[in-house]
Design a protein that fits this description.
Elements: H1 15-24, E1 31-32, H2 36-44, E2 49-55, H3 62-70, E3 75-81
Parallel strand pairs: 1-3, 2-3
C-alpha cells in the first residue's frame, strides 16, 4: 500500500494533517461489493466467516480498516456503499 507524505509549511505539521495521514495509511483488506456478481462471489466463498459493513460513506472507515488488518486471516471483510 503506498504511503502519503504529510504536507506542511515552515516545518510545522498540524494535528489534522497528522490525523489525516494516519487514517489514510491504515491498511485496508476489505473487499468492496458494488455489483450483484461481486456479492454472489463473496458469499459463495467457503471455509471462512464473513463480515459485511453497509455504510452511506464513500470511504471505508479507519476503524473498519484496522479490524480488517487485525483479523485478516480469520475473517473476510466486505464494504458495501448503501447509497450506490
Amino acid at each position: 500500500m503506498p504511503t502519503q507524505q504529510v504536507h506542511y509549511s515552515s516545518r510545522q505539521a498540524t494535528d489534522p494533517d497528522i490525523k489525516r495521514w494516519i487514517t489514510d495509511n491504515v491498511p485496508d483488506y476489505s473487499q468492496r461489493l458494488s455489483t450483484k456478481a461481486d456479492v454472489e462471489q463473496f458469499a459463495e466463498e467457503s471455509g471462512i466467516q464473513k463480515v459485511y459493513l453497509f455504510s452511506a460513506k464513500q470511504k471505508v472507515p479507519p476503524i473498519y480498516k484496522a479490524l480488517t488488518s487485525e483479523f485478516r486471516n480469520r475473517l473476510r471483510f466486505a464494504f458495501v456503499n448503501a447509497e450506490s
